[in-house]
Every structure is written in C-alpha cells, then in structure tokens.
Design goal:
Blueprint: E1 3-7, H1 11-20, E2 25-29, H2 33-42, E3 58-60, H3 63-67, E4 72-75, H4 82-89, E5 97-100, E6 105-106, E7 109-110, H5 111-119, E8 124-127, H6 132-135, E9 141-146, H7 152-155, E10 160-164, H8 168-190, H9 195-215, H10 226-237, H11 242-251, H12 256-263, H13 268-283, H14 288-299
Parallel strand pairs: 1-2, 1-4, 2-3, 4-5, 5-8, 9-10
Antiparallel strand pairs: 6-7, 8-9
Helix pairs in contact: 4-5, 8-9, 8-10, 8-11, 8-13, 9-10, 11-12, 13-14
C-alpha cells in the first residue's frame, strides 16, 4: 500500500482517487474550496456527483499536505496550467514518483518534457480510453502506461488495467491530438453528417496524428494502441466526450463562448488544435484535415465544410 497524492479534483482526478483508493492511501489537492468541501463533507466529486468517494480520501488546498508524505504524485491538472502546477509543487517534491494523467501539450512541448524541465525528474504517463464515470463505476478500463514499471502494480486494480508502452512520446501525442479529431467528428455530427463521413474523419485524423507524432520522435506503431486508436475511437463515438460535444455544438452554430458556458468543464481540444497547427507549420507537415478544422474554429470557415479538404 502506497501513499498517493493526486493534484487535481476534477472528474478524472476524483475517478482516479476512487480507483487508487482500493489499494492505497489517497490525498487530493483541489484548486477550489467548493470542490474540497464536496469531497470532504459529501464524499463525492463536485463536477460529477455520481462519483462517490470513500471517507478515507481527504482533500486539501495545501500542496505540502498532499505531497510531503506521498510515494507517488499523480498530476491531473489541465494542460494549460500544467507548467504552473509543476512550478508550484516543486519545493515539495523530493524523491516521489511523478505520474502524468493529464492530456495535452504546450505548443510542441510534451507534458513529460515540462516535468523534466521544471522538476528535474523523469515521469511516468497514464493515457488511454478512460471516461471518469466508467472508471468510478468500476467498469473495466484499459489504458497505456509508459515509464517506471516498478509502480505499475500500485496503480492498477481489478477493473483498471495498465499496458506497458516503451514509447512515452507517442502515448502523450495520441492523448493530446485525439481531442482535436473529436472536435472535428462533433462538428460533422452537428451539421448532420452520417456514419461514412464520421469514419472518413476518424481515418484521416489518425493518419494526421501519426504524421505529427512521427515528426516529434514517436513510433508509428504506438498510434494503433490504446493511447492512440483506442482513445480516438472512445472520444469520437462516446456520448460522454466533452470535446466531441463541443464540436457538435459548434456544428449547430454555437460560438466558442457559448460552448464553454454550456459544457462548463475543461475541453482540451481547442487548445490542442492551436498546438497541432503550430507543429504542422513549424515542421511543414501535410495535415489538411486539421488545417481545415483550424480554419473553421478560428477563422470562421463554414462548419459545413468540415469534410472539404
């Protein structure tokens, strides 16, 4: 049994807390007092109350309280706050294992690179097709894992299976860019396109994820695994995908501001689209589908042109 500190009390952070608590002692750090109180007093996730937590799980707004006695620190903060989170926790990190459960990038910097730059440590990464409500309902969930093999068994349990991958670069890129394709699929559904068009976007999307990934040093084979194709399919077909839902609303004519208000939770796809476009431009890659989506989202191209590229 290990002491695990989880940085982030959103729906996925709470789902991981529920899962890891089957074998470990858990503390959670929360950004807001409301989320902390929900966990400590009501024993549930504020953003997703159906996620019920053990009363042994405690939540704090103090990094030191969560990190100091931890053997493993799991970071689940949104990618646009990831570097700041690493900077904030640095003074409390000693010899803990760092595990990244966030998905996203900072321009062309992977989250593992940010951990190395800010904390001077080599992290592990969990990534794959994993909706919070399924994980917290003890449904079988299967994900990729890259990093320190010695702590894998501490993180998995009867319903949460980790599959080891050597390619820590590819595991992260698949996780970040699948949200971009999820947006595109949502737009297509929002304008009324059917199965063949959706499959076309998913197929082209996977092809472009591979192009970007290989340009950054990933192995092409990784993108056929759980953190690549697996996560892409779950995001594209799952009704609980926030990024796909955002795309549907965009296709129906909602503005980005209206979408953020409607969904009310973090959607990595918009930021990841900007990052993908930056990488495509920097390395002069041929990714017409992602370029087309960028024009729709940020330059006002007609959403009905989602398959015209």
């Amino acid at each position: 049994m290990k002491n695990i500190g989880i940085i982030g009390s959103g729906s996925f952070g709470c789902a991981l807390a529920y899962t890891f608590s089957k074998k470990n002692n858990i503390k959670i750090w929360s950004y807001t007092k409301e989320e902390m109180d929900s966990i400590n007093n009501n024993h549930c996730c504020l953003l997703q109350p159906s996620i019920v937590l053990s009363d042994t799980i405690k939540c704090f707004q103090d990094y030191e309280e969560v990190i100091t006695d931890s053997d493993i620190v799991v970071i689940v903060s949104p990618s646009n706050f990831f570097r700041k989170t690493c900077q904030d926790i640095k003074k409390y990190i000693t010899n803990q294992e760092i595990v990244i459960a966030s998905k996203g990038m900072e321009k062309d910097r992977l989250l593992s690179m940010i951990v190395e730059e800010e904390l001077g440590l080599s992290p592990s990464v969990i990534s794959g097709p994993s909706f919070a409500f399924e994980l917290a309902s003890s449904e079988p969930v299967f994900v990729d894992y890259a990093g320190n093999k010695e702590i894998m068994n501490d993180l998995q349990c009867d319903n949460f299976r980790l599959f080891y991958q050597e390619d820590i670069i590819g595991v992260q890129i698949g996780a970040a860019l699948k949200n971009v394709i999820g947006l595109a699929v949502g737009v297509a559904e929002g304008v009324g396109l059917k199965n063949s068009a959706i499959s076309y976007l998913i197929s082209k999307g996977l092809e472009e994820i591979k192009i970007i990934g290989v340009s950054l040093g990933a192995s092409e084979n990784t993108f056929y695994g759980l953190s690549g194709l697996g996560d892409l399919l779950t995001t594209s077909y799952g009704d609980n995908s926030r990024n796909k839902r955002a795309g549907v609303l965009l296709g129906m004519g909602y503005s980005k501001e209206e979408i953020f208000k409607e969904i009310g939770m973090v959607m990595e796809g918009f930021e990841s689209l900007i990052n993908a476009k930056s990488i495509i431009s920097k390395y002069q890659l041929s990714c017409p589908m992602i370029n087309n989506l960028y024009e729709i989202v940020y330059h006002g191209r007609d959403v009905r042109d989602i398959i015209k590229f």
